[in-house]
Amino acid sequence: EQTRYDIGRTASSEEIAGWDIDVRPDGKGLPPGQGSVMDGERLYEARCASCHGSFGEGVGRWPVLSGGFDTLTYERPTKTVGSYWPYASTLWDYVHRAMPFTAPRSLSVDETYAVSAYVLYLNDIVDDDFVLTQDNLADIEMPNRDGFFEDNRPDSPNTRCMQGCADPDELQMVGTIGGITPVGHFKQGADAPAASHEGQKALEEAK
Amino acid sequence: EQTRYDIGRTASSEEIAGWDIDVRPDGKGLPPGQGSVMDGERLYEARCASCHGSFGEGVGRWPVLSGGFDTLTYERPTKTVGSYWPYASTLWDYVHRAMPFTAPRSLSVDETYAVSAYVLYLNDIVDDDFVLTQDNLADIEMPNRDGFFEDNRPDSPNTRCMQGCADPDELQMVGTIGGITPVGHFKQGADAPAASHEGQKALEEAK
Amino acid sequence: AFAGRSLAEESGGSTSNLPPHEPSWSRQLGHGVVEHPYGSPSAFEKDVVRRTVPWLTAESISSISMTPLAELKGIITPNGLVFERYHAGVPIIDPDQHRLILHGLVERPLIFTMDDLMRYPSVSEIRFLECPANGGMEWKGAQMEALQFTHGMLSCCEWTGVPLRVLLEDAGVKPEGKWILAEGADGAHMSRSIPIEKALDDTLVVYAQNGERLRPEQGYPLRLFNPGWEGNTSIKWLRRIEVGDQPWYHREETSKYTDLLANGKARKFSFVQEANSVITNPCPENPIRHSGFIEIEGLAWSGRGRIKQVDVSFDGGVNWVPAKLKGMVLPKALTRFSLEAKWHGQPWLLQARAIDETGYVQPTLKQLREARGTNSIYHKNSIHTWKVAANGEVTNVQIT
Amino acid sequence: AFAGRSLAEESGGSTSNLPPHEPSWSRQLGHGVVEHPYGSPSAFEKDVVRRTVPWLTAESISSISMTPLAELKGIITPNGLVFERYHAGVPIIDPDQHRLILHGLVERPLIFTMDDLMRYPSVSEIRFLECPANGGMEWKGAQMEALQFTHGMLSCCEWTGVPLRVLLEDAGVKPEGKWILAEGADGAHMSRSIPIEKALDDTLVVYAQNGERLRPEQGYPLRLFNPGWEGNTSIKWLRRIEVGDQPWYHREETSKYTDLLANGKARKFSFVQEANSVITNPCPENPIRHSGFIEIEGLAWSGRGRIKQVDVSFDGGVNWVPAKLKGMVLPKALTRFSLEAKWHGQPWLLQARAIDETGYVQPTLKQLREARGTNSIYHKNSIHTWKVAANGEVTNVQIT
Ligand code: HEC
Ligand code: HEC
Ligand SMILES: [Ca+2]
Ligand SMILES: [Ca+2]
Ligand SMILES: [Ca+2]
Ligand SMILES: [Ca+2]
Ligand SMILES: [Ca+2]
Ligand SMILES: [Ca+2]
Ligand SMILES: [Co+2]
Ligand SMILES: [Co+2]
Question: What is the 3 state secondary structure string of chain C?
């Protein structure tokens, strides 16, 4: 059959297979393989802990991967794989496509199963003898799996009032916190941080 | 009286005077002063001839300033101050605002009268004892003063014919002259000149 | 009002380039043509650049920079100033070796080179692009001291490419195909699920912006573009589109780009950038420097279509005056509004309120917080307030 | 049609970045944000630059460079690629020391700083800018081998500034005021006379292009902009406007920018750029590389207003087919047209013919030569022909 424009060509199964890396909640896309929490611990310490911390607590400003259960209603919630993510597939997919940060796609399939198992273990979602596989990943029940709902906006539209739309006496005004945005270029004498990470580093070292 | 926006301020006569350099055919804008063909010759040789030639014939690719009378209907007309320009004021104005090319606005008023007189002399428009002044410039009659007419376009619009609009047997096709445009970037092996004057110079020197 | 200014004051000291004098630059020749085969802004505009807020992210490779909106005119953002957002930095992709694979629930899986894609009939549209985190640093309070940081994750370009619909038609979407997954060739392999309705409506596969090929920062050589939707869905460095029967729930549509409400539940797939607006003159970067006439100017935009009306308040939202929309009013594009006013040192609490063609009225901060709490991160499109002091200085405040 | 292409051929040898392989750029991090606070095009686009034809002028300082139209999409010309035309090179002007004086037959002579001018209410408009010498090298015969040189003295930007009318109203034009003189601050002190009707109609005093401040090449910090008129009238580096009762007949409106006819008489003050068009795909730079589908694409524009229709001929003007106008159709702006076609090696003599909203139909070369001879230099807006050979190569020819 001829396409309308007859541009490009048919992609071969082999070509597609190399790039078709996505995984879904129902497990579709997961390649055959497996990895234990035990294997994961070793790998995690070697390849992940330097940024995310040995317990997933996050080193410095790098992302926290564990804990934060029941904090979603707090003033400062801790959203982690364990406390927030609805599906375990997301973890496998993301680690496989993007981690470790400096060497994406460098983990093998089994290594991905293993570190994913370990991150789940850090979140008390699986036991220390657990082995994550193509077949059991979709069955893992994540704590916050029911935490999401479909977009139902507009949820807070205004009305077009033109006169006396608020009581001036009731208005509360809060000012800006000074000195935390890089505004030196337009404010004379502003003691503001640099506009780049490198500049920021230099500034901090200078202190 | 207040302007609508009250933006900017009144320009002083002094400020305006310094920038108000334009001259019109009726002589409006000419400052008091004068210059002779004799004085002009010396100045022209010193400040103009290196580009425009001792007789206004133009050195190399620099503009020709004299001659070309009655060539305007030729296949290759020579359009000069003498053969084409309708008013002498244009010469004074242009030399005063833009010449010599590398040092615009460096001629004094009297010097401008003098070189202008000399360019007119090179074009046989004034005699060798002529002295150009604020008062006589507007009276100079240029040979091609009646050579211009107001825009009367559209002068050659087409009609929107869709079928059989020309006789295919009568169509004459002329191709492009090759090798004179800088097309090396997209034509493999094209022997085209460089895309900059500097590159062109280098190319020519290399030959 | 200006009688007091002397020439020397006006020019910061030296008067030699002021009338009646002939300025130095008028007495000499400048550089010739093709000195800059590809040109750049004047050196005097060196402060008109993208800026980042270093404390926002751990490092610059997964970070964001903002467009200097205060310095821009009209609705086009020049390519050099379009805000940046990367998750693994900017990949340097050889366009001859780049491919797009279109597969999944289709009759014919297809693979395209850039040449192939550029053979399709192209469409060009001026549309805004906005990060849904724009303004998101201010859910809990005012903390940004300049327009560039309160609203600068925003730009508007003329985008050129192929409607994704055309490619999907050539591939032949099967009836079960309800979602697509779009994926990038960067180190993050950025991926987002998009409903097939959008993909068949106005989604573009884009290779040019403002006339020229995409900038590396915006996805060179190829990106997706979902008009009016959160910028993150417009996958850059696009290399793969898969058609499926359900969404993928990837990291960028679960961990990120979901909107946590006060009750602990989170809104998902909140794609549309709802109507928003901000005043660009005056603003912290553009304080009022002269009493008398001032054009209150700003930008409004809506992911649902055209802007219909913008109103301006001088008293923090008690009373409102209609502003004029000026220039082109295009769907899902930045739209300029303008209101002529006079200022003589009176304190102002300036606000703008956008209304789009669906009738949606931009909410107050109070309304938005009541509906969502302060932990949503994304989609903070509430009415913004600038405080104008008696000396003309402008600061960012919040009114509730 | 593509069964014969192997992977290695497609990519010029190496397959390591092609699927199924993971490309090198997907396995590493790229640079972070604000690595380029002001961005530039990809290094792979290094050939997309302005070019000049050195033999056109004695040196580069009073010369012209052309926009690479063949590589551009949509209607916006990115600022770095807008064609250049100088008479004394590019002056480097300190914006704080630049002034505009407005005087002559007015009630109140005024002087403005840049800050002053930017306080006026601004307008932004997408309009084309064209040198009237565009195409002028071909009055006597075809001699340019690429679209960049046949039509590249052409660009289209969003221009922002103040209507000159507003400034003239503030100054108060006296009843005798019938013409203005606009003058630049460059070494050429470029000057042109403009009828007051135009000045009060749509002339702008412009300080920004495509959102950002004017580029030095386009008149930073200030220029005039006469929509639809020959580019030379849109004085760059504008420093003075005088109102008078008659035109000045300066060098650029007598020696230059007058149109010499075969009978030795010359048309003066021929301001309008009449309707014109050119096919940009295919063209010499974009030969046809694949048989089968091709989108014939091009640009049309008219200084008299909107483009109403463009027709395309495949046989050198014997028969014509209507093309589709695509994207925005704005007055005095570039307008894209498109015609879907199939090519299987047949020789084509491709032409486009623009019709504007006044009903003006772009003339044939024969008609233009009959009316004007071949010495007019300017305003050569006749129908252009591309010859497509059996191997897909495209050359510039003339048909009469
Ligand atoms: C060099 C630092 C670094 C290393 C090593 C690293 N990561 Fe990350 N990780 C990051 C950064 C930075 C992000 C956020 C990226 C972004 O937002 O685009 C991240 C995000 C994540 C996330 C998502 C967090 C969230 O809440 O959305 C997971 C899960 C993760 N990493 C797991 C891993 C695993 C597993 C490894 C080892 C195999 C690993 N990371 C190694 C830096 C690192
Ligand atoms: C260094 C070279 C140079 C010198 C010296 C020079 N000129 Fe020129 N002249 C030029 C160039 C180049 C042009 C064309 C400029 C343009 O088109 O923008 C020109 C143009 C002119 C023209 C207009 C020609 C026309 O047909 O439009 C006149 C008149 C003229 N010059 C007079 C003078 C006079 C008088 C002097 C000396 C006081 C002078 N020039 C010195 C290079 C020079
Ligand atoms: Ca898949
Ligand atoms: Ca733990
Ligand atoms: Ca005058
Ligand atoms: Ca002689
Ligand atoms: Ca500035
Ligand atoms: Ca190319
Ligand atoms: Co959202
Ligand atoms: Co003309």
Answer: CCCCCCHHHHCCCCCCCCCCCCCHHHCCCCECCCCCCCCCCCHHHCCCCCECCHHHCCCCCCCEEECCHHHCCCCCCCHHHCCEECCCCECCCCHHHCCEEEEECECCCEEECHHHHHHCCCEEEEEEEECCCCCHHHCCCCCCCCHHHHHCCEEEEEEEEEEHHHHHHHHCECCCCCEEEEEECCCCCCEEEEEHHHHHHCCEEEEEECCEECCHHHCCCCEEECCCECHHHCCECEEEEEEECCCCCCHHHCCCCCEECCCCCEEECCCECCCEEEEEECECCECCCCCEEEEEEEEEECCCCCEEEEEEECECCCCCEECEEECCCCCCCCEEEEEEEEECCCCEEEEEEEEECCCCECCCHHHHHHHHCCCCCCCCCCCCEEEECCCCCEEEEEEC
Q: Report the CATH number at residue D122.
A: 3.90.420.10
CATH number, domain A33-139: 1.10.760.10
- Is residue C146 assigned to a domain? yes
Tens digits of residue pLDDT in B179-198:
788 888 888 767 677 777 87
Name the domain count of chain D.
Answer: 2
Residues C281 and C180 in one domain: no
Same domain, C93 and C208: yes
Q: Which of C249, C267, C285 is the last residue of a domain?
A: C267
Sequence ranges of the domains in chain A: 33-139
Domain of residue C222, residue span: 79-267
User: What pLDDT, on a 0 to 100 scale, did the predictor assign at position D373?
Assistant: 97
**Using a 6 Å cutoff on CB, does residue B63 contact ligand 2?**
yes
Separation of A151 CA from ligand 9 center, angstroms? 9
Residue A203 pLDDT class (50, 70, 90 cuts): confident
Q: Which of B101, B109, B119 to mutate to test the pocket of ligand 2 (most atoms within 8 A of CB)?
A: B101
Assess if CATH 3.40.640.10 describes domain B30-139.
no
Whether residue C1 is contained in a domain is answered as no
CB-based contact D20 A103, cutoff 8 Å: no
**ipTM for the complex shown:** 0.96
